């Protein structure tokens, strides 16, 4: 591990020198203009953050350090005999900026396995919550309870030099990633499997062991988890979970606090919770039709009813993407290979053919195409993980890889407290009528 940590610091020193140069030579260059509409409408299109781990193209989708999802599926190391990438490899790529070889990924898997111990008070804290608590609430609570283990918080309290922040953040990030599958699996087994818990298997890879602790030994499910944990890991810096983690981290809150904050955002239905909403929506449609497989006409009618009721069609649309999400496509390919005849998956594919033209008709939806959440639930149901309220926890465990790699970069680059300017609508009225000056600060 010392090796990866050292490598990270070397890369960071190089980038720090480059950024210093950029700021010296181009610090006052303009990167864009901000309109009044952007300020009121969720800051879409404002470039205001630096996130090293991935970059989104509205039409192509996400690239992790330059690699698209199909490229990652091909190039990242796999388990012996496996076809899907090991998510540990993606973490290495996001952190170091280079594709790891199999040996480096195996080393990282071993390190994560050795760091995965979760203290008992975390389980006791989760146990204190009523059983009907949403799994995402249990998850964020569990992560907050784990904060007792933060090395960064301890070191800060002891009074370290700011040049040393990154090293403690790095250790916390790895420890937290190592521990999350255990916390998540505990929640699953407590809520849905009569509190019958399964001990970790230190010989397995990170995602394979997660599947094992959840109670799924099928190799197909383990492959799904490897793919799932890879494709959900990061989506550049402005999405709600990544931005929140970064923002909270900018106050020098440690990795546990920052990640828990990000997870409370992932738990929203317009963000990560949409994966449970998709399955809920399909099941409700089936129920309304008396069961069975709905025809495309019936799906279209249900979509129109959803819209008429003033609701969104979950799994469709995106704040930035303007084409079918490549994460949706990757899952579709997985399904075509492993479960082409699955009834629910076939409904998901019929929904894909039906929804976009209807959303397009509305004239206001900027992206009528499916996002990652439109497909994931149906795959999980196929393998028996039917408890859809748990799905966003899986998303959260994966998202840790991206947002925690980013947090390491934030600290090693010495990123400052984030604090953009806000105004009141009264100020805006004066501004648009020329009675107030725009403030650059
Ligand atoms: C991992 C992820 O976070 S991926 C996203 C997961 N979320 C979902 O799938 C929920 C459904 N989708 C949505 O609600 C939206 O598409 C979002 C939140 C993802 C993006 O929101 P925006 O960037 O505001 O989208 P956009 O600019 O296209 O919105 C314009 C209008 O179209 C509506 N719209 C967008 N997507 C949908 C949809 N799937 N169903 C119905 N209406 C939609 C918006 O609600 C908005 O309506 P309004 O003007 O009456 O308020
Ligand atoms: O990019 C976004 O805004 C939402 C998203 O798809 C993600 O975070 O994975």
TrEMBL record:
Query: What's this protein's family per the entry?
Result: Belongs to the citrate synthase family.
Top enzyme class of this protein? transferase
Q: What is its EC number?
A: 2.3.3.16
Keywords per UniProt: Transferase
- Alphabetical list of SUPFAM superfamilies matching this protein: Citrate synthase
Q: Name one GO molecular function term.
A: citrate synthase activity
Q: Which GO terms describe its biological process?
A: carbohydrate metabolic process; citrate metabolic process; tricarboxylic acid cycle
Q: Which NCBIfam families match?
A: cit_synth_euk, PRK09569.1
Q: Where are the transmembrane segments?
A: none
Pathway it works in: Carbohydrate metabolism; tricarboxylic acid cycle; isocitrate from oxaloacetate: step 1/2
Q: Which organism is it from?
A: Chitinophaga costaii
* Name of the molecule in the record: citrate synthase (unknown stereospecificity)
Q: Which PANTHER family match?
A: CITRATE SYNTHASE, CITRATE SYNTHASE, MITOCHONDRIAL
One Pfam assignment: Citrate_synt
By its UniProt entry, which InterPro entries does this protein fall under?
Answer: Citrate_synth-like_lrg_a-sub, Citrate_synth-like_sm_a-sub, Citrate_synthase, Citrate_synthase_AS, Citrate_synthase_euk, Citrate_synthase_sf
């Amino acid at each position: 591990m010392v090796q990866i940590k050292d490598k990270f610091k070397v890369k960071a020193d190089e980038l720090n020198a480059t950024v210093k140069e950029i700021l010296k030579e181009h610090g006052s260059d303009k990167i864009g203009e901000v309109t009044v509409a952007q300020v009121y409408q969720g800051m879409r299109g404002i470039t205001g953050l630096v996130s090293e781990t991935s970059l989104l193209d509205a039409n192509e989708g996400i690239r992790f350090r330059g690699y698209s999802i199909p490229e990652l599926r091909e190039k990242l190391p796999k388990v012996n005999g496996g076809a899907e990438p090991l998510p540990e490899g993606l973490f290495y790529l996001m952190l170091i900026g280079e594709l790891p070889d199999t040996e480096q990924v195996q080393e990282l898997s071993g390190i994560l396995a050795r760091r995965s111990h979760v203290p008992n008070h975390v389980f006791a804290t989760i146990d204190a919550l009523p059983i009907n608590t949403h799994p995402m609430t249990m998850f964020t609570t569990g992560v907050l309870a784990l904060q007792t283990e933060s090395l960064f918080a301890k070191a800060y309290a002891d009074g370290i030099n700011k040049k040393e922040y990154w090293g403690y953040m790095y250790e916390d990030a790895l420890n937290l990633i190592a521990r999350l599958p255990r916390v998540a699996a505990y929640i699953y087994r407590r809520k849905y499997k009569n509190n019958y818990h399964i001990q970790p298997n230190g010989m397995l890879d990170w995602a394979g062991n997660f599947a094992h602790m959840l109670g799924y030994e099928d190799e197909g499910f383990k492959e799904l988890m490897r793919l799932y944990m890879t494709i959900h890991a990061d989506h550049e810096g402005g999405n709600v979970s990544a931005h929140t983690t970064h923002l909270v981290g900018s106050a020098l809150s440690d990795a546990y606090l920052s990640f828990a904050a990000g997870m409370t955002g992932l738990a929203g239905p317009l963000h990560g919770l949409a994966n449970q909403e998709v399955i809920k929506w399909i099941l409700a449609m089936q129920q309304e039709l008396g069961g069975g497989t709905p025809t495309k006409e019936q799906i279209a009618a249900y979509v129109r009813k959803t819209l008429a009721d003033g609701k969104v069609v979950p799994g469709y649309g995106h704040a930035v993407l303007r084409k079918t999400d490549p994460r949706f496509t990757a899952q579709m390919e997985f399904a075509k290979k492993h479960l082409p005849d699955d009834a629910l998956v076939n409904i998901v594919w019929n929904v894909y053919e039906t929804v976009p033209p209807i959303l397009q008709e509305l004239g206001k939806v900027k992206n009528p195409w499916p996002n990652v959440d439109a497909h994931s639930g149906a795959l999980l149901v196929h393998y028996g993980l039917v408890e859809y309220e748990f799905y966003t926890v899986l998303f959260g465990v994966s998202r840790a890889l991206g947002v925690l790699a980013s947090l390491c970069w934030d600290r090693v680059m010495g990123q400052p407290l984030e604090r953009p300017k806000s105004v009141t609508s009264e100020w805006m009225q004066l501004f648009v009528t020329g009675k107030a000056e725009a403030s650059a600060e």
